[in-house]
Every structure is written in structure tokens, then in C-alpha cells.
Amino acid sequence: MAQATSQKRLAIAVIDFLEKSLKDGTVSSEDVESIEIAKSCIADSFHVKADDPAARKDALDDGSLLKIYSAYELLKGKKSTATEASKPNTSTPKPSGPTPTTPEAESFKSQGNAAMQQKDYPKAIDLYTKAVNLSPANPIYLSNRAAAYSASHKHKEAVADAEIAVSADPKYTKAWSRLGLARFVLGDAKGSMEAYQKGIEYEGNGGSEAMKKGFKTAKEKVEQQEKDASTEEAEEDTASPTRAAGGAGAGGMPDMAGLASMMGGGGGGGGGMPDLSGMMNNPMFASMAQNLMSNPDALQGLMNNPRLRELASSFGGGGGGGGGMPDIGALMSDPSLRDMAMNMMGGGGGAGRGAGRGAGS
Which of 161, 263, 278, 286 has the fewest CB atoms below 10 angstroms from its CB? Predict the structure, then answer.
């Protein structure tokens, strides 16, 4: 709603600029019809009544679009050809810094300060705006209005005013403080910290206590955000292997029991497929499998073992238990296989220790 109101005011300001351009001769009489059409189109498109004195006063007060844009060019270090081309004030040199004050502007500022003390922030904004219209690049007026905007919870507007104020006069440190506050409230902790840092630099002697406190608060927020981001990245990295395993167990161990069911071997059966589900429910085999998955060299050695290759060839022949299950007792009576099994379980301490270490990896 506030943005729509600002757009309507700007539309009225543009129409006012076009009218004044006709009156002061900036636009030739041959273009009068084009200007009138442009004014009508703008009024219709933005649903404004430029001939309404109240609407025009609300949009411009005692200022003009040309004056505002001239202040903008001044802050950006550009030469205002528009000001030089206009008839009024052509002989008046442009200031190299902030625009000068006038008694009337100072009066509006004083009234705005009084309204701030009474916590009448809308009135203060209105009075400071009148002062700004008379002296658009005055850092004090802009900074004061920024404070009133922040007090009214209009922090985006406060940032805009404070940024223009510090551009007009970086040495006016109150503007840096108000820019730091507004940015912080909007969630820009890094930008807030930078504003307070500039304020400290321009204040000199290490900065005021208020400026240092603002900088410290913003810095702590930045550090906390960086810490939180690092923690989230670490959690994502830790979770990745588990997601990649598609429902894997601890340490990225695949769900062998589920794999056996998919292959039709969950219950043993006569197809020659060993009972993988039963095997993986055995802590000893679970530990062995985990160590194999985390140790490629051990897996390669296992595949090159002639005794295991002989055993694998017998799975389909019903030489072991039901469903092609090998005879565990016979396997463990083979010294080489027994030693290999103990190594795969993490050493000579038995299956319990190997399984526990594997689950924690």
C-alpha cells in the first residue's frame, strides 16, 4: 500500500515537471500537444488527479522533481545539466557538498525534533520531509528522518535516507549509526557491521561507546550466522552417505536382508540362493560385512581366496544348510577362513567388539 502511494506521488511529480518544463521554455511550444498527451496518459495509468491541489502538495510540498533529481546527481558526483538548462537559478553555483540550510528548513527540523520527543513519529516524518524538500542533500535532515522512520518500523525507508546522508557527508556519524540500526533490524547483519565500522572510523579515537556496542552486536550476529551455516553444511555432509545408500544401515551398510527378499532368497528356498536375511541378522556376519564395505583391500583379498570361491560354487548345489546356506561350523574349522573372519570383525576380540565399532563409524 505504501509503495502504491509513493508511485502515485511520483506520477504527480512527473506531471508537475512536464508542466513546469512547458512554462519555463525547456520544451518548445511545438511539443505542447505531446506533453499534454503524456500528462493525460500518466494520470490515467496511475489513477491520479494532478490538478488536485491537495494531492500535488502531498506529493511535492514546496519541492520539485527537478530539485530532487539534482540532489541525486550531486550525491553521485554528476553534473546536473537539467539545472543549468532551466531558467531559474542558472547563475547559482551548485554546492560541492551537502546542500545548504535555510531558516525555514531549520524551523521544520526543530519542529520535527520536538515531535520526536513527543513520540509523534508520523508528524516528525512530515516535518523532516519539509526540511528535506528545501535542502534535499542535507545529511542532518535525512538522518533525522531516518531515525523517525526506524521509530515507525519503516526500516527500508530509514536505510534509503541514511545511505543518502552518508553519501552527502560521510563525516556525519549519526547517519552511519542509524544506517547500522536499520540494516540490522532488516536482517542485514553484515551490512550493519560495515556501517558501524565506518562510523567508528569517522568518529576517531576508537569510536563512541554506542557505535562500538552496535558494531559488537552486529559482529556477533554475523559470526553466529556463519557458525549456523557451517553446522548445516556439516550435517548435510554427514547425512549424504546414508541417503546415497538408499535406506542403508549404520556406516553406509546396505540392507542385505531387504536385498535378499527382492532376489527371492529371504527364506532360503531351493533356488540355491543363500539365506541372506538370516545371515545379516547374525551379528558376526553383520560385522564382517561392515568391515568389508569400509575396506576395499580386505574385500579384494576375500574375492581372491580359493576356499571361498569353492564355497561360492557350492551354494547352488545344496551342500550346506537349507536353501543353499553354507555350514558355518565347517567354515570356521578352516584356520585360514577363521582368521580372515576375525580380522574382518576388527581383530581378535570377537564379533561383539567388531560390530560395535562398525555401527559407530
Answer: 263
Q: Burial level of 48, CB count in 10 A (0-12/13-18/19+)?
A: buried
Prediction pTM value: 0.46
Write out the H or E segment, with its range, that includes residue 142.
helix 139-151
Average pLDDT over residues 49-65: 73
3-state DSSP assignment of residue 265: coil
Residue 96 contacts residue 63 (beta carbons within 8 Å):
no
**306-313 vs 296-303: helix crossing angle, rounded to 10:** 70
Confidence band, pLDDT 50/70/90 cuts, at residue 335: low
Asked if the model's pLDDT at residue 62 lies above 90, the reply is no
**Dihedral of the CA atoms 114, 116, 120, 122 (nearest 10)?**
110
Find out whether 196 and 215 touch, Cβ atoms under 8 Å: yes
Query: How many angstroms separate the CA atoms of 65 and 59, rounded?
Result: 10
Looking at this protein, which amino acid is placed at residue 110? Answer: S
Name residue, grid cell 495509468. Answer: 45
d(CA 280, CA 248): 13
What is the Cα–Cα distance from 258 to 260, expressed in whole angstroms? 5
Residue 169's pLDDT band (cuts 50, 70, 90): very high
Contact 247, 258 (CB under 8 A): yes
What totals of helices (H) and strands (E) does the chain contain, helices first? 20, 0
* H or E segment to which residue 360 belongs: helix 351-360
- Tens-digit pLDDT profile for residues 76-105: 554 444 334 434 333 333 334 577 789 999
Cα–Cα distance between 43 and 47 in angstroms, integer? 6
Nearest residue to 129 via CA among 114, 147, 115, 112? 112
Please say whether the beta carbons of 163 and 186 come within 8 A. Answer: no
